[in-house]
Amino acid sequence: MKNISTVAKEVGLSTKTIRYYESISLTSHPIRGDNGYRYYNQHIIDELNFVKRARDAGFNLEECKELVHLYKSEEGTAAQVKALTLEKIADIESRITILQGMHSTLSSLASSCTGDNSSQCAILDQLSVE
């Protein structure tokens, strides 16, 4: 059994995040000692690692809840997990397209500005027109 500080360092999450995940039932609840401290067993540490890897892969908290449910459930299928993953890929591709458009716009704006000490700036002029 490990305390929250030790687990936080081991897993790479803040103690606040670990408590939050517990509060939204994303992970199992740890055992409480007589002193009120949380004590984590390996099962909960594994859950925290699972959620951290899912978050690092881009899944949001709701998607993580679904993944945890599918992982723990006998009812979950590989098809469901793959569908969720493919949805996430499509979402990321959409965001990449939006970011590329923003990059293009900003590059064009930056190119239009002389960047000198003049009070006139083509970037501000272009942003002010409809």
UniProtKB/TrEMBL annotation:
<dbReference type="GO" id="GO:0003677">
    <property type="term" value="F:DNA binding"/>
</dbReference>
<dbReference type="InterPro" id="IPR011789">
    <property type="entry name" value="CueR"/>
</dbReference>
<dbReference type="GO" id="GO:0005507">
    <property type="term" value="F:copper ion binding"/>
</dbReference>
<keyword id="KW-0804">Transcription</keyword>
<feature type="domain" description="HTH merR-type">
    <location>
        <begin position="1"/>
        <end position="70"/>
    </location>
</feature>
<keyword id="KW-0010">Activator</keyword>
<dbReference type="InterPro" id="IPR047057">
    <property type="entry name" value="MerR_fam"/>
</dbReference>
<protein>
    <recommendedName>
        <fullName>HTH-type transcriptional regulator CueR</fullName>
    </recommendedName>
</protein>
<dbReference type="Pfam" id="PF09278">
    <property type="entry name" value="MerR-DNA-bind"/>
</dbReference>
<dbReference type="InterPro" id="IPR009061">
    <property type="entry name" value="DNA-bd_dom_put_sf"/>
</dbReference>
<comment type="subunit">
    <text>Homodimer.</text>
</comment>
<keyword id="KW-0963">Cytoplasm</keyword>
<dbReference type="GO" id="GO:0005737">
    <property type="term" value="C:cytoplasm"/>
</dbReference>
<keyword id="KW-0238">DNA-binding</keyword>
<dbReference type="InterPro" id="IPR015358">
    <property type="entry name" value="Tscrpt_reg_MerR_DNA-bd"/>
</dbReference>
<keyword id="KW-0805">Transcription regulation</keyword>
<keyword id="KW-0479">Metal-binding</keyword>
<keyword id="KW-0186">Copper</keyword>
<dbReference type="GO" id="GO:0045893">
    <property type="term" value="P:positive regulation of DNA-templated transcription"/>
</dbReference>
<dbReference type="Pfam" id="PF00376">
    <property type="entry name" value="MerR"/>
</dbReference>
<dbReference type="GO" id="GO:0003700">
    <property type="term" value="F:DNA-binding transcription factor activity"/>
</dbReference>
<dbReference type="InterPro" id="IPR000551">
    <property type="entry name" value="MerR-type_HTH_dom"/>
</dbReference>
